[in-house]
Automatic annotation (TrEMBL):
Protein known as: Prophage integrase IntA
GO function terms (MF aspect): DNA binding
Matches recorded under PANTHER family: PROPHAGE INTEGRASE, PROPHAGE INTEGRASE INTS-RELATED
Tyr recombinase domain sequence ranges: 203-399
TM regions (residue ranges): none
Amino acid sequence: MQKPLTDVLVRGISPPTSGRTELGDTRCKGLELRVTSGGARSWSFRFRDPRSGRVTRATIGSYPEVSLADARERANGLRRSVSAGLNPVEEKRRERESSKTNTFKALSDRYLDEHARRFKRSAPADERNLRLHVLPKWANRRYDEIQRRDVIDLCEGMVAAGTATNANRVQALISSVFSFAVDADMIGVNPCVRLRKRAAENVGRRVLTDEELVLFWHRVVSPPVSRRVGLALRIALLTGARVSEIAQAERGEFSHIDDPERAGWVLPTARSKNGCSHFTPLSELARETVSEAMDLADSTSSFLFPSPSVRSKPITGHALSVAMQRFGGSVGTASEAARSWASEQPSPHDLRRTVATRLAALGCPAEDVSAVLNHKRRDVTGRHYDLYDRAKEKRRALNLWSDAIISLVRAAGLRSSP
C-alpha cells in the first residue's frame, strides 16, 4: 500500500490483528513503514540490486527513535548509493567485517604474528607492553585514524604516571607497529616518524654494596618470594645472566653439575639475545643453587623453573622482576643495608651490572667480563676471526665471584644453604 506518510498517520495507524502491515511513502521512493501485530513500527528502504536486479530491503531503524523526516533523509542517501551502482546492504556488511580487521588490536596481532615473533627476541616484551599500555586505550580504534597527537597523549600519560623510560619503550614499539603497517601497505604514513623521546633516560649505575649483597643472598629465598624464584634470582647474581634466560632455562642445558672443572650451562642460540650460543661455567655456589632448583622443580617438566600456573611452560622473566619488587618492599628499615635497598630498589638488571662491576674490581680483564655477560665483540676481528669462547677465563672469573660472595656471607655470620 502506498500513501503520502505523515507523522499523524504513522503514529495513528492501528496494528493488524496478525502478521504485519507495510506502507510505502509516495513522497520518498523506496521508503516503507512496517507495523507488526504487536504494535512495533520500523523503517526500511526497498530497492533493486544494481547488479543482480533482485528486489531487496535495507533496514533503517525503528519509529519513533527514527522520525519520519530522518527516515526520508536516510532513504535518500541509500537511493544515491544505489544510483552509484552500490548495494547498501552489501556495503554495510563489508563495513562490519572490515571493522573487525581495521582496529589497532587487529594490526597489533598481525605485527606480533608476522614480524615480532619471527624476527625479534623481544617479542614477549612487545606483547606485554601492548597488552598493558596500548590495547586498553586503542584496541577498538581504527588504526588508520590514530594520529601523532594520540601517540603523544598516550605516552605523556605514562610519563605523568612516573614511567618515563617505559614511555620511550612504548613509543618505539608503537612506531614499530606502524612501520610494519606501512610496509604491509595498510597505511601510507607512520604517525611516529621523527617523534622525539618522551623523556631523557639515565644510564643505570645501581651496584649492590657488600651489605646489600649479604641481605639479598640471605633473604631472597624467603617469603614473600618463593624459594624456587629466589634461587633463580641467586643464579642471576652468580652468573650475570639475564633473568629472561634464567626463567626459560631447561634442565638439559646444564651438564656435569657435580664436577667443579666441567660444570656448565649452555644457553642455546634460539634464546640468546645476540643470537650466539653461550657457555656459562658454574661456580661452587652456582652448582649448589642449580642442584637445589632441580630438586624443587617438577620432575615431569623439562624446565628448571616450571610455571606454577601454565602447564608445560616455564616462569617468565617478568615474574622474576615482580619478585625483586616484592623483595624490595619487604626488607624493612632495620639495618643500613635494608634502608639503602628500600631507598633505591635494585632491578634484576642491576644484579647483572653488579656482577660486571665486581668482576672488574676482582681484577678480571674487560674481555673476560664481556665474555661472562655474553657481549658480542663488534670489531672486525671479534666478529669474523677471534672465535675463542674464553671458557677457561670465564670459569676463573665466576669462581672468584663465588668465593667473594662466600667470604661476605661468612663474615656477616649469615651463611645459609643456597
